[in-house]
Amino acid sequence: PQLTIATAITYLHRFYMRRTLYLDHHFDVGGACVLLACKTEESIRKVREIAISCAKSATKNRRLTDEGEFEKWGHTITKKEVLVSTVLCFNYNILHPYVPM
Taking residues 44-56, what's their average pLDDT? Predict the structure, then answer.
């Protein structure tokens, strides 16, 4: 959904306003932001689904099927979720300038 994507992008921008790009990889933080956005916008996705998408995007291999790689990404995303929440000061309220159709 468009609202979830917009929320994730806003979280990512807020995160990198407060923290430098050199400390955390953007794929890891992006996955965590998508997970948080799914939770706050009530667009339920499993961590595994997000991990698979992140792994395929990061490796630029759409046919990736390595279960160990997906598990590693899932673990990384859940760890980064806590960091993103802390950096955002647990402020998940996003006011969007539009209403989804």
Answer: 88
